[in-house]
Amino acid sequence: MAPERTLREAHPTERAVGIAYYVSDADGIGGRLRESPEDFRVRELEAFDAEPLGVEAGSYPELVVRATLRDWDTNDFARRLSDALGISRERVSWAGTKDKRAVTTQLFTVRGVDADALPEIRGADVEALGRAGRSLSFGDLAGNAFEIRVADAVGEAPERVADAVQDLRAFAGGADGPNDSSTGERAFPIEATVGVPNYFGQQRFGSRRPVTHVVGLAIACEDPREAVRLYAGNPAETEPDDTRAARDRVNAAFGVSDGSGADDGFGADGTCDGDWAACLDAIPGKLRFERSMVHRLADRGVDPGAPPDDEDWWHALEAVPSNLQRLFVNAAQSFLFNRIISERLRRGLPFDRPVAGDVVCFADGDAPGELYAPDADRLQRVDDDRVDVVARHCERGRAFVTAPLVGTETELGDGEPGEIEREVLADAGIEPGDFDLPGEFDSAGTRRAILLRTDLDASFADGDPRFAFALPSGSYATVLLREFTKRGPLAL
Description:
alpha+beta, nine-stranded mixed beta sheet, 15 strands, 21% strand
């Protein structure tokens, strides 16, 4: 067993979603992200080819456009584009959803539209690139390139950035790459290959109310009653007063006290009144998914004391869109993954190379050259005889150590890595077979690389640190930036 490490603990909000530590012991630079949209630039790295605009539209019905968006949520822009074209929103597709407070460049496909019909939209620069025979999907996104400014960093930011880069460079394996500055170099810009644990970021679980994973864990434990309560009730301190009060009312209907001891007139003592109509009166319209769940309880007059796995509770859960149903389970898998790699970090096991018992995946040969991109469909178990050979593949960027996103087809590791995986699952009361679930909740599982490696360019302009790097699809820029800022996710 490797020696356990003394590590800097993560922010409490992060620990709640399984992110237990920082890799770098350097003090944080503080600061804020997204002071303006231009501070957070994202450019998609696509794995999608388009035919020329002049091809026959009958064979290539999808118009491929590249849009640079300022302060636009992807879903909102797609809705605005479809409205301007007078078409169904279902005819607009994209590969990756981007946050609003940013400048983002990404592809869209629009079915059955000519290039000259594209409208002008405020805050959007839309360019027709060509045509395609099918619409974009998530698999067409290889990764994203980021250019990020951190505003209002501390005066000691240059020294702290340099210290953190050295720590992260060592965590990545310390191998010199074509852009690596020498070990002692502290002049900016600093260019180095760095690495961090490939955590799922706070956005995966809900930034202000991180509950999707606990809902998913309840689903995996076949307790849809508790899953409904956790989603529709279960208030968070960071919520506005009206939504907190509404969730307290739902808790009371389920027989759960709000913990205040106050008699506020609607069963705060947990009287289990099952008054779903009163809950609907309390839930504001902006909580539309919560209202949909409670509507189904009201329509069927569900007894709050019904068995936890009663079909009525499943019916209420399925009131939310299918993508949110899948997200509940995916978030539970992500939480368990975060806990597994946090425990590996605590024990001092390497991330950049395997130990006996690990399962590795190989690199995606079709990924753009600027990405360190794993292919989770190509797996190999590492025994004692293969450790050195596979370690050389990892050093050269040809292989990556993985941990499970647990599902029905997951095969856990052996040796100490497998011990960690089994201990985390046992602590959560979860087994791989628990993900054999109805409808959209079912999941076969997969594996995910535990090391997030990238070529980082760190510089300063007008006193502010700026970071440029590229990450594969499914990885989070904030997971890298947190090592520099050392701030809680809500403070950014």
